[in-house]
Amino acid sequence: MTGTPMTIIRSIVFNIAFYLNLIIQMIIFTPYYFLSARKNAWSVPKNWARSNHWLQKVLAGTDHVIEGIENIPDGPYICAPKHQSFWDAYAFLPQIADPVYILKRELMWIPLFGWYILKMKMVPIDRGKRSVAMKTAIRGAREAVSQGRQLMIYPEGTRTAPGAPPAYKYGVAHIYSELGVPVLPIAHVAGLYWPRRKFRRYPGTIRCRILPPIQPGLDAETFLKKLQDVTEAACDELLIEAARSKNPPPLPPTAIQRLKELGVMI
């Protein structure tokens, strides 16, 4: 059962190993990271992401499967994953060639970690000044795609619980209209296994689905509706699969409510 004391023990062990892994790798690979060209230096965080997957599988019993890798386009595009936990902040790094994140500027002030971010030429913004932040984001995004990079955007802006009503922000539609590149939706229900604001990690398999890219040229409203519709439909399918799996994770109230709305008995 997922609520057993063993789950708690495995979660604690994984969390300790997760942060030790981050600290140790940042220290060990610092010389190589900062002396290498940016594209070569990406091997460090990508290796960190892969090692996190391994630790989570071995220590917490949580594996993952990514479907639809063949849908990833070449060149610049906007990557738009569902955002449910810290897991999806790094999980797709191995599949993305040269990503750039739009992130809050305060992260740049963290010793060593902020320097790592600076090396990758991310786009820091001041979330307290929305109009200025959007202009900064657009300017940074244009520069990134001109270099053939992939822009990481979480359409809802913040982590949401599995099954919660979608709340997609207009910002992703604005950036889509400005950049004229494909948008790659990614659906998953990682929040069932790595819940936000909780330390427990539940065993099972996180299933992710990379959907066909949405091509440029749609008006902003049509694009935003399509992005939400295709992503949420895939998330619903993955939620049903997780709920019906042999050893399902604990379902939060939002997931239970969504399953009821879908007519799924659990």
Automatic annotation (TrEMBL):
It comes from the Bacteria. Pathway: Lipid metabolism. The keyword ATP-binding does not apply. InterPro entries: Plipid/glycerol_acylTrfase. Its EC number is 2.3.1.51. Keywords: Acyltransferase, Membrane, Transferase, Transmembrane, Transmembrane helix. One of its GO terms (biological process) is phosphatidic acid biosynthetic process. One of its GO terms (molecular function) is 1-acylglycerol-3-phosphate O-acyltransferase activity. The keyword Transmembrane applies. Residues 77-191 form the Phospholipid/glycerol acyltransferase domain. Pfam families: Acyltransferase (PF01553). The chain crosses the membrane at residues 12-35. PANTHER family: 1-ACYL-SN-GLYCEROL-3-PHOSPHATE ACYLTRANSFERASE. This is 1-acyl-sn-glycerol-3-phosphate acyltransferase.
